[in-house]
Design goal:
The protein has helices at 23-30, 39-52, 57-62, 64-70, 76-80, 84-91, 100-116, 122-127, 148-159, 167-176; strands spanning 5-6, 12-13. The chain is an all-alpha fold and 195 residues long.
Length: 195
Amino acid sequence: MVGPLLGDDGVTRCPWAGPTASVMRDYHDTEWGTRVHGEAAYLERLTLEAFQSGLSWSTILLKREAFREVFCGFDAERIAAFDDADQARLMGEVRIVRNRLKIAAAVTNARATLALREREGLEAFVLSFAPADRPAYDDTATMATTSAESAALSKALKKAGFAFVGPTTMYALMEALGLFDPHLTGCFRRGGEPR
């Protein structure tokens, strides 16, 4: 059980951000739990959460710019047009996580994102699963990794044709996108308004 930790800069943060300056701390301080807007921003986070499955988040953050480049700025139309040759090219791209199933899922999810345009669109779809009750955790032992809402989002996305969108991955997505405040009580970011 770990509560918020005091960093070397005198600021108290969620413990996973680390006590010293790092890509994780920067992400915690500027992005995690903050609302983003637009289809590409949502598709990026959905894609990166899927690629993170089984890996450390720092690995994904360190490769993020390469992911943005090879996935065309997460433009759903461009990714949806990827064919077998494009997917084989990505398997040879050493700057990203090379996993055939996750690469295929990124293309599948871009195609499903395009289909959602006929309805409310990816952003509104995901936001519709925001929990009514906003959790507040004091330490890592009490933090959840899934919720009824993340399970429902997972099920709905699968029904809409998405892949690699399990309940745990969707809970992490909901945290990252600020569908609720994921910061521990005592973290300097706790209670900040979604931007």
